[in-house]
Amino acid sequence: MVHVSFYRNYGKTFKKPRRPYEKERLDAELKLVGEYGLRCKRELWRVQYALSRIRNAARHLLTLDEKNPRRIFEGEALLRRMNRYGLLAEGQNKLDYVLALTAENFLARRLQTLVFKAGMAKSIHHARVLIRQRHIRVGRQIVNVPSFMVRLESEKHIDFSLTSPFGGGPAGRVKRKNSKRASGGGDGGGDEDEE
Amino acid sequence: MTSQAPALEILVREPDGFSVWSGPPYPPGSSPPQRLPKTPCSATYFSRDGSRLLVTVASVSATVYDCRTLSVVRSFDLPGLLAAALSPTGTFLQTFQKSSSPQEKNVTVWHVDTATALYQHYQKNMSKATWPMVQFSADESVACRMMTNEIQFFDPKDFTKGFGYKIRLPGIAAMQLASAPGSHVAGFVPETKGVPASVQIFSCDKDAQGQVVARRSFFRCSTVQFHWNKGSTGLLVIAQADVDKTNQSYYGETKLNYLTTDRAFEGMVPLKKDGPVHDVQWSYSGSEFAVVYGFMPARATIFNKKCNPLIELGEGPYNTIRWNPKGRFIVLAGFGNLPGDMAFWDYSEKKLIGKTKAECSVTSEWAPDGCHFMTATTAPRLQIDNGIKIFDHNGSLQFKKMFEKLYQVDWKPEAPERFGDITGLTTSLGSIKIEETKKQAQGSKSAQASGKAPANIAAKPTAYRPPQSKNSAELQDKLFGGLASTGGEMSKNALRNKKRREKQKEKKAADASGSPADDS
User: Fold this and answer.
1) Kind and range of the H or E element at B331?
2) Is this structure's pTM higher than 0.95?
3) With an 8 Å Cβ cutoff, is B170 touching chain A?
4) I want to staple A124 with a disulfide (CB 3.0 to 4.6 A). Which of A37, B175, B226, B236 is the partner?
5) Are B195 and A167 inside 8 Å of each other by CB?
6) pLDDT grade for B17, boundaries at 50, 70 and 90
7) ipTM metric
8) pLDDT digit string (tens) for B337-349?
């Protein structure tokens, strides 16, 4: 008998490819992993799985009649979500455009890519490091997760966090130790100017 | 224009000297009257408010003229003169002379009226980016200069005291003082290893003592350009990098950031197209700015102070923006390596007024009264086809003059408030406003001419009717006439196409009802 307090819903978030050693697929996946700075193939398969579920939903809705209340309601909701996350542009407000989405659209909305594109990091890998090391905030919230899907209106609020040395906060542990050592350790911590 | 409005003047500099003409409108067929005959010189600059004119002869002398009477106020003999700059109201003159020894102080700030040297200082060499050494606010109440690691403020009433207080900013490489009013100053610290480049805004108050008002950090930046607005509330920063890390452009990348002094917004301006930022200009009122961005054909958008997009001006081969000083019009132009298309927009009505071409132009500027727009082809950039063209505010060519060789053409700056509103266009726009929506239906030719119409917010471009068309009553008749007869007076081809379309529609309806096919 299942113990109720240990019961939690969970499901898979990725799907392994059917053929393991297909040259073109391997090349294409490696290219995307390198371009978007992903950690492993699983991160890419996760995005592809999410995309395939959205496409299935859109395809199913398109088979329904145009005036079907279910099609209208769910179609609008799906399109609103796509617009909100910046996956569809303003003029593309129809279900057919959802079928034309690709994994790259999704990968371009990750926080890691947007931090790089905004010029806040030197490279895509530097962006991942900055995010993981808690230098980046979206709005007022520090976001630690490189695969955070950034909403369209949050995009202009990506900035260095206020506690980070890059965003006006005090220097970090290593710098403080070095400056203390450099100043001879006489008075506690040579007070460096903020940079 | 009111009777008190000052006359426009144009300064023209050719290889043998400069002359000042009085401004348009010119009666047709005559050459513009000269106010000052040709005087030899090597460079000329107006002071920012247009009251004084500085004329330099390289390595010899600098002369300051008063613009209203065009008489010499003061002449300075400066051997080895390399650069000179006039303060915004023309009270102070900064000069840089070639110096042979550290004992000789070669940067001097002179007081023009009394010809006394107020402040002198030795500087080994100068670069164009750091000249003029002392930056003044528009009313000359604040003066500051950038030294290594700090910004020093002078008291403009008494330069001889030296600098009064300073703001410390280690590593500062570029600075700009907000000029109207001079309440804030922006400094740029470039990127060092590990530490991002940053732009910081400080208040110019003595009591603020180096407190940062707003800051923004970014990597991937080697130089910046600052654009303060009128009122000093907002700063636009274009960060340029020489190498494009996203591998999209050979020429490097540019990013547009926006900072406000009340910290309401600190961030990147959201631009919908990838590519470099070609031009960004604040309007003369300081409450909105226009950006031209993206790989060609570039998009143009006008944003308000809160960085929300107000109007999309569509796409086209443009890389320059010129706001009209009276505020209602804006010109998008493609100069430089583009063929010279110019589009005149009425920003408040959100309509395209006119489109024209000015090939091979180098400089372009609105007249201070907002009624004329002058483009010029000048010499060091282009050696042939030098000349001036003056357009009026809806894009029709008014005056053209070619020269053998032309070095510089400028309007004499005036405060736009001294001129009246541009009345000509307002009345005619009012008369054809009612017909606007109907005209869109019939103006197919005009829609093609205006190219890609701007997206959702802007109104569809309508056929351009010149404001001074004598038969405007007849025009309205024509428009009304066109309306009423859309049912009956269509051309033969149009009728035939209409019939064909109706037949197709009937066929489709029959098919759909016959078999449940999907559409869309």
Assistant:
1) strand B329-333
2) no
3) yes
4) A37
5) no
6) confident
7) 0.82
8) 888 889 999 888 8
